[in-house]
């Protein structure tokens, strides 16, 4: 970094031109601060992004993925995980302040960040109040690479405990495929019918992976 002209160093560029002027690798280099033998910090930042699939892949990366990236010792991993957690909490904060029916992309981004890169299936529920603002997002069931058992009774129980007026269902596909299975569709209808008995609406069911998110509501599957 010291070999670069002052005006081209990421920190100086950020301070003089603002963060939007920096490339992804330059932003990451500011967090990493130092490179490793034979690899400067900018080159290392580029390699990390390449290995993890860009900034979006980095934000969704699990701790185990970071340990496999050469040059990311405990200190650098801790700093990256802290930044990623701040990004997640920022999204959650935004979701508690506005009606999520008006912000479908925000919900997709958050769930993809939280669940998209998990190596096993997880079934999560976003519990919403009467104004469709987020009360809580909880992972209720955890399974294997390809399957998770979901129990409607437990979903109803937790919904009533949180006094939620509506819910958004979500689960991930570790395979990366976003297409919902027939079992996914049947489960959605079962939960929708069960929750209707306690006057709770299912607003959507999202399937997420590291490649994106699919909405049942947008597909007309609700």
Can you tell me about this structure?
The protein is α+β, with helices and mostly antiparallel strands and 222 residues long. It has helices at residues 10-17, 24-32, 41-52, 54-60, 63-67, 74-95, 104-115, 152-161, 182-196, 216-219; strands at 122-128, 134-142, 166-172, 201-209, 212-215. It has 2 domains: 6-90, DNA polymerase, domain 1, CATH 1.10.150; 99-219, Cytidine Deaminase, domain 2. It contains 10 helices and 5 strands; from the N terminus they run αααααααββαβαββα. It has a 5-stranded mixed β-sheet, with helices on both faces. The longest helix is centred in the middle third of the chain and has 22 residues, at 74-95. The chain is elongated, with a radius of gyration of 20 Å. It starts with 9 loop residues before the first helix and ends with a helix.
Cα-based radius of gyration, to the nearest Å: 20 Å
Overall spatial form? elongated
Helical stretch tally:
10
Described by strand count, sense and barrel closure, the largest sheet is: 5 strands, mixed
Low-confidence parts, pLDDT < 50 over ≥5 residues? Answer: none
Separation, N- and C-terminal Cα atoms: 53 Å
By CATH, the topology of the largest domain is Cytidine Deaminase, domain 2
Q: CATH superfamily name of the largest domain?
A: Cytidine Deaminase, domain 2
